[in-house]
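Format notes (please read before filing issues)

Several people have asked whether sequences and structure tokens are stored in separate files. They are not. Every record keeps both together, in the order shown below: the sequence lines, then the token lines. Line labels are part of the format and must not be stripped during preprocessing.
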Amino acid sequence: MKKQIIIALAFSISAFSFAQKKELKAAEKAIKSSSFSEAKESLKLVQPMLSSLDDKLKSQYYYLNALSLFANGTANNQDIDKAIESIENVNSGFTAEIEQLKTDMLNNFLSKGNDAYEKKDYKIASTYFESAYNVKVSDTVFLYYAAATSVSVQDYDRALILYQKLKDLGYTGIEKEYFATEVESGKEVVLDKNTIDLYVKAKSHINPGARNTESKKPEIVKNIALIYVSKGDDEKALTAMKDARVESPNDINLLLSEANVYYKMGNTEKFKGLLQEATRMDPTNPELQYNLGVIASESGEVDESRSYYLKAIELDPTYVNAYINLSALVLGQEEPIIKEMNGLGSSKKDDLRYDELREKRQNLYKEAVPYLTKALDYDAKNLSAAKTLMNIYSILGETDKYKKIKELVDSIEAE
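Then the structure lines:
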């Protein structure tokens, strides 16, 4: 009885195996005629009993499944991912067939990715470049393209994943490039080695050479940091920036990004320290001097703030905001004067003190006038500067100047 059951079971397995082979053959035939939906239906019948197939039949299934999902390049993104996953499960035979399929897929993805890139459809381009990488993981440059194009459409969550993967892989993007100088134009050109050799031999180019391109690792770690900044994840941003600055210690933009994170977190001391470091790296940058002036002003360091603003103007005489902020520093000294004036009595001594304070206040206004005038020289429609100057002339009793500036204010507000 036991022997009969074993024989019956063996017969059942043999019949099942024959049925699966039949479905695989039907799927193969459907694929050859580009009937991919039909092929998928045949393969669905095989899938439930896949675990019982031998390695060769399993590999045949996965190979045919990849073909049907890819559908000669007409597949959607979801099926593309499944097709690539199916390829990875082929482990017995079909070596040449899989290589051909991978080549076809790679060419298809790159062609579509490049077309999308040319049309500035970076979101689609990024998806195809990532698929190209998934087909040929040895070419990490495709993953780099996917990350870079993803940033172009501000898809930062996706870009972060891709850049982090590049970082974990240790991708540098360093390549050897070949160059020579074109005799006719005197300009250096970069071409493949064989072409360079032909041109040099033909004497149309001279001074051939080879060099390594710059590493893209600094760019990658920098972008990771900046993405965290854009996401508002300050702690991770600062951690990533430490890595980035190790890679690019002389990148002033990265240093400023780190400074801005500290400023956003309320750590003005750290912000100020990094700005000072930046000014040592780029002492001719007026914006750095201006920002240091702002921080000093917010900290109540009036003299230090004034020196930074004046330095910014020295570097860029057209720096309107520096002129306006200098006037604000001067006028900021008015408040304690007014407070004291309002607190005085009616005695003769108080009257004398009042006159002294009034003169001191007017001198502040006169000191502020040149800064505001300069601001309007370079930005004639600056409403803030014009209104402040108008009010000063009103208080000083300079009627003609007041009327002239009021006309300017009215014209600006009318626009």
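For reference, the curators noted about this record: Residues 318-415 form a domain with the Serine Threonine Protein Phosphatase 5, Tetratricopeptide repeat fold (CATH 1.25.40). The mean pLDDT is 88.
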